[in-house]
Design brief:
9 helices; about 140 residues; Leucine-rich Repeat Variant; about 0% strand
């Protein structure tokens, strides 16, 4: 995360604070934080790795909420989401594919197509849906 001059300690602290807020249902608070500090988009990948479903779901809702309002800022999360497509956990692979479908573009379809041969059928379904969504967003 050095591109935006944030230390690993700060990254861990931001991730913990945001994850705890999402777990407690403070989505609006988190949305406001992200609206005014685009550096926070760099921790979205960490949020998708969280064991708590409310945190992962909250991260997805956060990105969905800010996608139209701040599309360039939302895309700052992509380099931190893409490696998760190869994560050992099918849950994390699926969540990353889902988010990539939401915020990704045609250039990401190849990465999603790699998941069409995944050993987990849910990951395959999510990747298929993500590819369809990207096609939908880019059709005239």
């Amino acid at each position: 995360m050095s591109k935006m001059n944030i230390s690993e300690a700060d990254e861990r602290e931001f991730t913990k604070l945001i994850a705890d807020d999402l777990e407690s249902g403070a989505l609006e608070k988190v949305i406001e934080l992200f609206r005014y500090n685009k550096t926070l988009f760099l921790v979205v990948g960490n949020l998708l790795r969280d064991d708590r479903m409310r945190v992962r779901l909250g991260a997805n809702m956060l990105m969905d909420e800010l996608l139209e309002e701040k599309p360039d800022d939302v895309k700052l999360a992509l380099p931190h989401i893409l490696p998760l497509l190869r994560d050992q956990s099918p849950t994390i692979r699926g969540d990353a594919a889902d988010m990539l479908g939401m915020i990704g573009s045609v250039e990401h379809i190849g990465l999603l197509q790699d998941l069409l041969n995944d050993s987990n059928h849910q990951v395959v379904e999510i990747a298929t849906d993500a590819i369809d969504l990207i096609h939908e967003k880019n059709s005239p």
